[in-house]
Structures are given as C-alpha cells and as structure tokens.
C-alpha cells in the first residue's frame, strides 16, 4: 500500500540516491531525502524481523480487524492526556472502564446491599506493566497509611506473590519493596496457599496472584489463597489485600471459565490489571487497571487535570500517550460483546486442543498446561523416558528456519531444571496454520532423529525476559 501519493521525482524508485549509495544511518543527514525511497528502504529492512503471525511466543495481538486499522489511522493524532481537547476520547475510556469493572464483577453502586460503596475506578495504561505498577503503588500507599495510623514503622514493605511476570520484579525494585516470590511446585506449576500464608506479615503490602501465568498459562488458586488470607485475619488480625495480575486471563476467564472466582466477587481483591493488547484483542499499547472502589485508590496518587472546565482525576506514569488503542478497545467491546469474545477465545481453545493432539502423536512430549484452569496455550516438555537425541532448544532453532518462533525456556525456581516449549494460541492462530506447524515439526524431528546435532547443546538463556 503506497503511503505517499506525491511523487517527488520521475526517476525509478530504486535509482534515486538514497537507494544507490550506502547511508550513514547513525548520524542525522544534512540533506532531505526522497520520502518514497526512505519509506521503501525501511519497509524492506523490516522484512528481516520475525513474522508476527508466526511468533508463537507472544500473548499480544498479531491480527487486527480492518476496522481497527482504520480507527487507529483516524486516531493517530489523539492524545489520551488531552481530556479537555478530546472529550469524546476521554469519555470512551471511561465507558471501557465501566464495561470492564462490570465484566470483573465490581459491585454496582445501585445495589442496595452495597451501602456506602463507592464505585469502581480505573484507567487505561500502555499495558499491564504500567497497570501493575499503578496497582502496586496503591497497595504500598495504603499499607503505609495503615502502619502510620497504627503508629508502626513503615520502612520495610514486602510483596508476596507466586511466580510472576518480570513487571513485578521491576515494581519491587523501583519502589524498594522486598519481593517474596514463592517457588513454583512441580506438578502444579504454581505456588500454594500455604506458602502464601507462611510469607505474609504486617509489612506485607499485598498478595499478587496471576490469572494465567506467563510460564505455563495456569490460573493461580486465587479463591483458595483468598480463603487462606481470611483465615489469617481470623487468627492474627492481619487484613491483607490482593491484587490480581490478569494480564491475559482478564479477557479470557470471564468468557470461558465464568465459574472461577478470581475478581471483585472476592472482597480482598482490591485491584486488577489486564492487557487490552493481549486477549482483549486491541492493538499494542493498551492495558487496564481497575480498583474495586474509589476508596482503594489513595487520593495522594491522583492528579487532577483540567477537563471541560472541570477537574478530571488521572493516575498514570506517562503524560502524553496515544488514544487509538483505547478507541480500538472500545470498538472490540462494542463489536464483539460477550458472545463474540466467547467465540474468539473458544476458537483458540479448540485450535490449542487440535495442536496438542497432533503433538501427542510424536510420543515424545508431556503436556503441562491445563486448559480447564488456564489460558489457551500449549506448553510441553520431553517425557522423562523420551531419549531424544536433540534438545528442545535445538528443535526451536530448526523450526526457526521455517519462520516459526517457538520459545524454549526453563521454568522459575523450584522448577528450574525443567525445560519447556510453549505456543500461545490466540486470535488468528488458525487450525490450518497449526496444521502447517505440525507438518514442520514432523519434518524437523525426523531430520533431527536421523542426523542428531553433533556435540552437546550449550546452556541457553532463558526466554522469560528476566
Ligand atoms: C504480559 C504480562 C505482563 C506484562 O504486560 P504488558 O501488557 O506486556 O506490559 C504482566 N503480567 C503477566 C501475567 C503477563 O502475561
């Protein structure tokens, strides 16, 4: 699709100077260049990137409806922070917050049982990492206020969590909080409620549980942890809040596993983050954080910006930020509705099952994800008796020659001796594509069996961004 319709020269594109001379791409040039040529050059360089549709590692959207492309194009100039100038964009963000609060079962203020209940509050972010940072900050501020009020010290905060995504390591480091990350147990691939309890004390700002871990896709046992914390309060008086990292699961569980209680139905759950750009089906750059009630977000953290002559509360790490992703989220929520999301996520589970069945036929792999209590992904390791003359890393390398990006990594402690491979099945991962992938698995495995790679495989860096 040519983006430039103003021809700047009649010369053939590939004969202009920008195309025929090596460019110094590390210094800004003195002169201007032909836009078509520069566009084409960059376009061609990007061909060397991996192909996102074959990126089986990512949880993020890699296919978007035409209407989303159009809205993104129309919104390229919308700045999310300019609430006064773009009141409709601001309004649309609030509508998304309402829809998601409702989807995650925040108490309705009109509910007579919810006396004194202030409404849920939240905002869009650039992704779950920013959202987690905001949720975590609220936990820290609230804890500090509790400690101060009780005349207790507030210099040694800790956060208790299971095996978390790297954004929580960042949060803990940036805000000087001791991260008590619990071990992953073999077999369940999660931490346990007992571990959580054993690590909580009066300096615990909160407990983070993940709805769909990045490692194996499991939903952590949130309801059990919640019950354990209730027991802790009965026994010791400690009242510990929970934050749920529902980066992926927030847009999956409500549609596919509505019976699993993980959200504002549980009273300790004070805040939830989710990535609009993962199973929310928005383009990259969209996340959400929602607090159960206004009271859970400390007033200190809120900045008021001028909005239609009034004051609009904002809480964000960024100032200027694009608005298109939020508009696209709104489009998806309106366009798909509950049934649409069910169909899209349901198709991913079906495709994941298809792939699992295909992979089973090799007789080499043991599956460690659980799609009845987890995300639509497939995660496997070698069976203990597999005796394959190659490593999973070498299998990934071979598949990469066909463009497939299949991550191989070790699990976190205490499962660090387990090497796994994983694909995330998401919107646009079709059965047909997975069929082609399985054919390539077959070809590559046959080859590796026939002529095993010589020499031992070297230790690889783990995939999980840490
Ligand atoms: C992806 C992910 C994150 C980080 O989210 P971004 O939207 O990429 O910033 C955090 N937690 C979990 C569980 C995730 O899967």
TrEMBL record:
Swiss-Prot/TrEMBL keywords: Decarboxylase, Lyase, Pyridoxal phosphate
Modified positions (N6-(pyridoxal phosphate)lysine) in chain numbering: 278
A Gene Ontology term for the protein's cellular component: cytosol
Name of one Pfam family that matches: Pyridoxal_deC
GO molecular function: glutamate decarboxylase activity; pyridoxal phosphate binding
Coiled coil start-end: none
EC identifiers of the protein: 4.1.1.15
GO biological process, any: L-glutamate catabolic process
Residues that span the membrane, as ranges: none
Protein family per UniProt: Belongs to the group II decarboxylase family.
Protein name according to UniProt: Glutamate decarboxylase
């Amino acid at each position: 699709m040519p983006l430039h319709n103003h021809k700047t020269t009649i010369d053939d594109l590939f004969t202009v100077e920008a195309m025929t001379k090596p460019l110094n791409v590390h210094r800004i040039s003195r002169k201007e260049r032909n836009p078509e040529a520069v566009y084409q050059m960059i376009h061609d360089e990007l061909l060397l990137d991996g192909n996102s549709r074959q990126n089986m590692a990512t949880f993020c959207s890699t296919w978007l409806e035409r209407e989303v492309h159009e809205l993104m194009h129309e919104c390229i100039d919308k700045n999310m922070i300019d609430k006064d100038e773009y009141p409709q964009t601001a309004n649309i963000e609030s509508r998304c917050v309402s829809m998601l609060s409702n989807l995650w079962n925040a108490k309705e203020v009109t509910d007579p049982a919810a006396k004194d209940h202030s409404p849920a509050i939240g905002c869009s972010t650039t992704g779950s990492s920013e959202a987690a940072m905001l949720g975590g900050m609220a936990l820290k501020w609230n804890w500090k206020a509790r400690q101060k009020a009780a005349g207790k010290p507030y210099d040694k905060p800790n956060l208790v969590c299971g095996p978390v995504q790297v954004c929580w390591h960042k949060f803990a480091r940036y805000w000087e909080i001791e991260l008590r990350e619990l071990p992953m147990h073999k077999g369940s691939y999660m931490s346990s409620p007992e571990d959580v309890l054993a690590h909580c004390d009066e300096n615990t700002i909160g407990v983070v549980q993940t709805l769909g871990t990045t490692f194996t896709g499991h939903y952590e046992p949130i309801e059990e942890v919640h019950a354990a914390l209730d027991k802790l309060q009965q026994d010791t008086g400690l009242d510990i809040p929970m934050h749920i990292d529902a980066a992926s699961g927030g847009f999956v569980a409500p549609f596919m596993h509505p019976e699993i209680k993980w959200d504002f139905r549980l009273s300790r759950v004070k805040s939830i983050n989710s990535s609009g750009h993962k199973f929310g089906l928005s383009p990259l750059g969209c996340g959400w954080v929602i607090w159960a009630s206004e009271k859970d977000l400390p007033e200190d953290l809120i900045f008021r910006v001028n909005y239609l002559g009034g004051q609009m509360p904002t809480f964000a790490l960024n100032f200027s930020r694009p608005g298109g992703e939020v508009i696209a989220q709104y489009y998806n929520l309106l366009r798909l509705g509950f049934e649409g999301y069910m169909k899209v996520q349901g198709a991913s589970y079906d495709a994941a099952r298809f792939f699992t069945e295909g992979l089973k036929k090799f007789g080499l792999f043991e599956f460690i994800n659980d799609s009845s209590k987890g995300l639509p992904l497939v995660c496997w390791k070698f069976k203990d008796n597999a005796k394959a003359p190659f490593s999973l890393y070498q299998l990934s390398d071979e598949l990469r020659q066909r463009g497939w990006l299949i991550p191989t990594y070790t699990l976190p402690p205490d499962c660090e001796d387990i090497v796994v491979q994983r694909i995330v099945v998401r919107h646009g991962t079709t059965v047909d594509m997975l069929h082609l992938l399985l054919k390539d698995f077959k070809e590559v495995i046959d080859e590796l069996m026939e002529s095993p790679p010589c020499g031992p495989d070297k230790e690889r860096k783990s995939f999980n961004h840490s």
